[in-house]
Amino acid sequence: MANIPEMTPAGTVDPGPSEIRQNWTMAEVLELFELPFSDLMFKAQTLHRRYFDANEVQLSQLLSIKTGGCPEDCAYCPQSAKYKKDTGLDAAKLMDVEKVVADARAAKAAGASRYCMGAAWSRPKDKDLDQVVEMVKQVKALGLETCLTLGMLEKHQAERLKAAGLDFYNHNIDTSPEYYSEIITTRTFQDRLDTLEHVRNAGLNVCSGGIVGMGEAREDRAGMLKTLATLETHPQSVPINMLVKVKGTPLAESEDLDPFEYVRTIAVARIMMPASYVRLSAGREAMSDEMQALCFLAGANSIFYGEKLLTTPNPASNKDMELFERLGIYPK
Ligand code: SAM
Ligand code: DTB
Ligand code: SF4
Q: Which of 140, 165, 171, 190 is 20 to 30 A away from residue 114, measured at CA?
């Protein structure tokens, strides 16, 4: 396979001419997915160690600054207004700046390096951004990296957020172009790509990944990673979420994905985008310590930290710190 490091019999690696590339083909991606597990892990680890300290993991803490009542119909999401009567999730308006900053201060004290604020909007209005810009400025002043996920953005909005000092914008493509309409009907895959372009062109760091375990085929997982790795530049951060099955959402009864297939997805992301942070994202609450260790071995080097994601639980910080201690991992 072109440009993928090959193992010599002695187990050393020939790096090949260019490891960071945007010309991945589906055949190459599927070939990676089909490797024997040990060979895939070895390739992923080899690349991981070339670009990163393999024992260092970055910690991002999330806060839902505006919860529920979203007009989109993402089948995995408890925040869509469409499933409200079945999920029972209470909507909440945009939080006060002071409350957000207090939570960010606590996140920093607990060891987080990045603070990510999420809003259940399809696309923010310009006047919504006034308050959000203030949050970014004050959170940044605490010495934290800042990230926002607010839905689709116009070019001028991305530029405004960059000017306010925002570091990252999260906008997931969620799945393959082919499977997208099975999951979301209120917007298109191209809408997501357009926002990513505005974010990238504004000079913001891009955080973009997706969700597995939504009943998609391996081809869809491969197609999702191919889309990410063939963007003009690789997203600096790639969250790979395992579906959190929330009662009342259309995907609540989805079949469990083979855990090894999740680990494979992380490993393939690591190989395709070797210099990017790959995040072991939502779904850790349902994973064993051993499973998480396999994900770190596969090249995951970032997690969501703190006891809540947006609306669902995440492992407690002290539990994560204990696991890090047992594995010799240290936070970035
Ligand atoms: N509304 C904005 C948007 O969709 O771009 C931002 C917030 S939205 C909740 C952020 C991301 O969370 C989604 O793109 C999706 O990838 C992820 N997500 C939402 N619900 C999830 C679930 N039940 N399991 C895993 N990931 C989920
Ligand atoms: C991402 O990739 N995962 C995060 C974040 N980006 C915004 C969200 C996960 C949400 C899980 C379901 C919930 O807590 O509502
Ligand atoms: Fe709304 Fe985002 Fe949830 Fe989709 S994922 S329903 S856009 S909050």
A: 190
Beta strands in 102-186 (DSSP E): 114-119, 145-149, 168-170
Ligand 1: centre distance to CA 233 (Å): 22
Q: Give the Cα separation of 306 and 112 in Å (integer).
A: 8
Q: Say what the pLDDT of residue 19 is.
A: 86
Task: Flag whether pLDDT at 200 surpasses 50.
Answer: yes
**Calpha distance 268→48 (Å, rounded):** 11
| pTM for this entry | 0.94
**97 in ligand 3 pocket by Cβ < 6 Å?**
no
Residues with CB under 6 A from ligand 1: 70, 76-77, 79, 118, 120-121, 149, 151, 171-172, 174, 211, 241, 243-244, 246, 282, 310
Reading the block at residue 254, the tokens are 């989805």
Give me the active site residues, please: 70, 74, 77, 116, 147, 207, 279
Going from the Cα of 67 to the center of ligand 3, the distance in angstroms, rounded, reads: 10
- Residue 17 pLDDT more than 90? no
Residue 99 has which token pair? Answer: 């409350």
- Ligand 1, residues 64, 66, 72, 74: which to mutate, most atoms within 8 A of Cβ? 74
- Ligand nearest to the CA of residue 235, numbered in listed order: 2
Q: What is the dihedral of CA 174, 176, 180, 183, to 10 degrees?
A: -60
CB 124 within 8 A of CB 184: no
Supply the residue whose CA is at minimum distance from atom 8 of ligand 3.
120
Q: Provide the mean pLDDT of the chain.
A: 95
Contact yes or no for 269/234 (Cβ under 8 A): no
The half-sphere exposure of 30 on its side-chain side, counting CA atoms within 13 A, is 8
pLDDT at 2 over 50: no
**Counting Cβ atoms within 10 Å, is residue 49 exposed (0-12), middle (13-18) or buried (19+)?**
middle
Does the CB atom of residue 222 touch ligand 3 within 6 A? Answer: no
Q: Which helix (H) or strand (E) holds 129?
A: helix 126-141
pLDDT of residue 10: 43
